[in-house]
Design goal:
This protein has helices at residues 14-25, 32-40, 44-50, 52-66, 84-91, 103-109, 122-139, 150-161; strands spanning 3-7, 28-31, 72-75, 94-100, 142-145. The chain has 163 residues and is an alpha/beta fold. The protein has a five-stranded parallel sheet with strand order 2-3-1-4-5, sandwiched between helices. It is globular.
Length: 163
Amino acid sequence: MKNIVLIGMPGSGKSTIGLMVSQKLSMKFIDMDEHIEKKEHKTIKELFAISEECFRDAETRCAEELSKMDSCIISAGGGIIKRKENIDFLKQSSTIVFINRCVEDIVADIDMSTRPLLKDGIKKVYDLYDERIYLYKEYCDIEVSNSGDISEVVQDIIKKVVK
């Protein structure tokens, strides 16, 4: 089976939803940020402290590696869409699902101090959303809304991807 890659803003629910989808479909779950940390022997914060470019390079290496796998649910980092090559790698073996969640819900739920790109506060979340929304929509194969019950989002993804 093809991979299912979840993309969307930080705080959109990719990891939580991805884990639930993987359990329902008995597929391996991979959180790209955790995968990057293991491969690079550095935390995401440490990679960003070197430079965002350093992190993005690691992210691209990870996207290329994961594109060679199959039957996985992959939760991608929020900025995976910043490099088209990442999406090109992932599309080789995956269905790309954009989890769209309104910014107000994201801001209400996430601890911004743990997210390197969001440490500057709420305005940064809105700026990132405005900057990225068209890329998420352009690069996805399927879009789902995360505006209510998480189990409904999980069922929506399964219904749309597994035919």
